[in-house]
Design goal:
Residues 183-224 are annotated as: Disordered. It comes from Karlodinium veneficum (Dinoflagellate). The protein is of the alpha/beta class. It has a single domain (5-176), classed as 3-Layer(aba) Sandwich (Uracil-DNA Glycosylase, subunit E), CATH 3.40.470. It is 29% helix and 12% strand. It has six helices and five strands; from the N terminus they run βααβαβαββαα. Strands 2-1-3-5-4 form a five-stranded mixed beta sheet. The protein is globular. Residues 189-199 and 211-224 have low confidence and may be disordered.
Length: 224
């Protein structure tokens, strides 16, 4: 296998005409989050050992905002709901990658293929699990399914979920032989004292650690 990995995202964050010149997948805050999760010093260090791509080459239409999230009615939390992911077209794109590889490199040759988001994992035909991250090998491809690094994913607000993602990413990089020379230490995990271990609290935390980064829409159309 190559001493190199591949990171696959969902789609560009905005319409093509609104993207910066020479835009590349994960450019901006998402690549900065991935860099910190993996323990690299800079995004340049991360991309020195990883290739990257968006599975869908255009920005899908935004998800409709629920009435309870209307800022005019006093809602003050997240201000963006993500996009309606066109799963049918994503599956076609994933199938092409599996059959023909990326720029002549088959996915089996990569040390690891990181799929960012449950929607991307579904496009590659992986059986979805209740929570992310998880790792599995299928048809000779070593996958790591991570939460999408976009700020739309609410789990980044939860310390336990962040540390789970850090641990999974760095362990997978170590197994693949792609870990940075001197990985930055994980920040200390601060949890409240005397936390009641109730089943209700555990379910709430598990829901927060689930990605939930947008409902797939198999009927979404390709823009002309």
């Amino acid at each position: 296998r190559l001493r190199r990995g591949l990171i696959v995202g969902q789609s560009p964050p905005r319409p093509l005409e609104q993207l910066p010149p020479a835009y590349q997948a994960f450019q901006g805050p998402p690549e900065q989050r991935l860099t910190k999760l993996a323990g690299f010093e800079t995004p340049k260090d991360l991309w020195a050992v990883f290739d990257r791509l968006d599975l869908i080459g255009w920005c899908p239409e935004p998800k409709p905002r629920a009435d309870k999230h209307d800022v005019k009615k006093g809602y003050t939390k997240h201000n963006w709901d993500g996009h309606r992911f066109p799963l049918r077209f994503a599956r076609l794109a994933a199938s092409r990658l599996l059959n023909f590889g990326r720029d002549g490199t088959s996915l089996q040759e990569y040390a690891i293929v990181v799929l960012c988001g449950r929607n991307v994992a579904a496009a590659f035909g992986l059986k979805l699990r209740p929570f992310v991250p998880w790792a599995e090998e299928r048809d000779g491809v070593r996958y790591l399914v991570m939460p999408h690094p976009s700020g739309v994913s609410h789990l980044w607000n939860d310390a336990v979920c962040r540390h789970r993602a850090i641990a999974a990413f760095r362990a997978a990089l170590e197994v693949a032989g792609l870990q940075p020379p001197t990985a930055a230490p994980s920040p200390p995990l601060a949890l409240p004292q005397n936390l009641p271990a109730t089943e209700k609290l555990r379910r709430k935390r598990r829901r927060k650690c689930d990605e939930g980064s947008g409902a797939a829409d198999p009927q979404a159309k390709v823009p002309s």
